[in-house]
């Protein structure tokens, strides 16, 4: 049925639940897994005309922090896959649009299913922030399983 499952993670509890579900599905199907985290490029908004990235050492500090968090999310998901004895790889990329990175990674790696969580935003936050899951659902030609917990 499915042979290669992409599981994006942002380290949230809901995302971790989707990782567990996706890995469990992969184990049942003897499928391999690609675990993905997407790091958005650094943009700063401040009332001071000096951008944060021009403060000596600030950009490097923020990059290391974000990179460390992404690696932490991947390590946690990798531990779940390893414990289930599922063949997996981890991918950490930077991309302006998270939904596009998910779809592009799934296509590039030959994934035939994307398993991801939904943060269930509603109201104004859904309008302003949008939903990565909804964008993946509407733009992907690859089947998407949305795990709601």
UniProtKB/TrEMBL annotation:
Cited CDD domains: USP-like
InterPro entries: Rossmann-like_a/b/a_fold (IPR014729), Universal_stress_UspA (IPR006015), UspA (IPR006016)
Start and end residues of each UspA domain: 1-146
Listed SUPFAM superfamilies: Adenine nucleotide alpha hydrolases-like (SSF52402)
Family under the similarity heading: Belongs to the universal stress protein A family.
Name the UniProt record assigns to this protein: Universal stress protein
Native species: Mesorhizobium caraganae
